[in-house]
Write a structure and sequence with these properties.
The chain has helices at about 1-15, 110-115, 135-150, 210-215, 250-255, and strands at about 20-25, 45-50, 50-60, 65-70, 70, 80-85, 100-105, 125-130, 150-155, 160-165, 170-175, 180-185, 195, 200-205, 230-235, 265-270, 275-280, 285-290, 305-310, 315-320, 340-345, 355, 360-365, 375-380. The chain is of the alpha+beta class and about 375 residues long.
Length: about 375
């Protein structure tokens, strides 16, 4: 009898200690961040221009903690979206390709500090679920159609659907072409437009794309208001001012006149592993990246300059030793750089980026909506 009681008691303890699964389909999407994460995990707030650039993302571990309307999501990544006002600037989308930046937090105090810095809310307003298998996509679609009926065809993708669920204040985007289910609280979002890189621009009716984009990027500094622009000179080897790629250290940078008005930050991956040291000047919109030294991120004498990005030439005064000029058209680049050293469509019909061939560094020249040379980055290849 005592043995049976012991077994029952052990089972009860295990059952009680087992974490309760969170059903994403039942969330109102205004829950506090701490109600959907576990501080015991290695959490990070992430800027990710591939997923969605104008908010923070928090990645939930693919541990089986989450379900969707009874469907087990173990093995699938889950991202929660958090509104962050400081991220509503188009500078991060001009980085070219995918831009990622993470800031880890271990407890509520660290989380609160980051949220305050980025003028971010302490609650979520949406989630994004990975759908890696065809079977999971079918299961989720079946659940969505049972709840909301047949969706509206997304004109921008082959198989995408969406629902504007007004009675629940939710936008639902089924994007199987990009392995994503996206559900958002629509209360504080545009009622006529939606955009992300996995759905394209969705018009709910009466969408004014120009006004919508302006609202998304409302925190961008108008170029005419930028004063005391830093003077930058880029030599033929793509070094910048007195800083040499691959040899200059973080200490060299800190001693230089170029380092004025920069903030230091550390980025890490979702497992908490150090990625790089970044010095960022958000006002003038340019950044320096360093590979951490042998003793970690605080080894400034051994942290080596791996690259830089100038995300908007309007924020700086930049000149080039190789005769490039800001505002050049794509075809004019051929006047100063040999065509055999260029990767990409010089006419910019299919892309806004031209890459300059280099054995060590990835060098991208980026062009604006008028196809004029407007930003660039140089980063050591992985």
């Amino acid at each position: 009898m005592k043995y049976l009681c012991y077994i029952f008691l052990s089972f009860l303890i295990i059952a009680c200690s087992k974490p309760k699964k969170i059903d994403l389909s039942k969330l109102s999407l205004k829950e506090p961040i701490e109600s959907v994460i576990d501080f015991k995990d290695k959490n990070a707030l992430e800027v990710n221009t591939v997923e969605y650039p104008f908010c923070f993302l928090i990645e939930g571990k693919a541990s089986g903690q989450f379900i969707f309307d009874g469907i087990d999501l173990k093995g699938q990544k889950v991202f929660f979206q958090v509104n962050a006002e400081r991220l509503k600037t188009d500078s991060i989308t001009k980085f070219g390709g995918g831009h990622f930046a993470m800031q880890g937090f271990k407890d509520k105090a660290e989380l609160t500090k980051i949220l305050k810095e980025y003028q971010a809310n302490d609650n979520i307003y949406g989630f994004r679920v990975e759908m890696k298998s065809p079977d999971l996509k079918k299961e989720i679609l079946k659940k969505l159609e049972a709840r909301y009926g047949k969706g509206t065809k997304n004109p921008n993708t082959d198989h995408g659907l969406y629902w504007n669920v007004k009675k629940e204040n939710k936008y639902v985007f089924y994007a199987p072409d990009y392995d994503r289910l996206i559900v958002l609280n629509s209360t504080d979002l545009s009622k006529t437009c939606y955009w992300d890189t996995m759905n394209g621009l969705i018009d709910f009716g009466g969408c004014n794309n120009e006004a919508y984009t302006k609202d998304l990027t409302k925190n961008r500094t108008d170029p005419k208001d930028i004063k005391n622009k830093p003077v930058l000179k880029i030599d033929k080897n793509w070094n910048i001012n007195d800083l040499n790629l691959g040899t200059s250290t973080e200490t060299d940078f800190l001693k230089s006149a170029t380092s004025k008005n920069f903030e230091r930050m550390i980025t890490s991956d979702s497992n908490g592993n150090l990625q790089e040291v970044i010095h960022e000047n958000k006002y003038n919109n340019f950044y320096f990246y360093f590979t951490a030294g042998k003793n970690g991120e605080n080894d400034q004498k051994n942290n080596i300059l791996k690259g830089y990005s100038i995300n908007d030439f309007n924020g700086v005064a930049v000149s080039f030793e190789n005769q490039l000029k800001t505002g050049m058209k794509g075809e004019d680049i051929l006047k100063v750089i040999d065509k055999k050293d260029i990767i990409g469509d010089i006419a910019l019909k299919y892309s806004n980026t031209i890459e300059i061939k280099n054995p060590v560094y990835k060098i991208n020249l980026i062009f604006d909506d008028n196809k004029l040379f407007s930003s660039m980055y140089v980063l050591k290849k992985e």
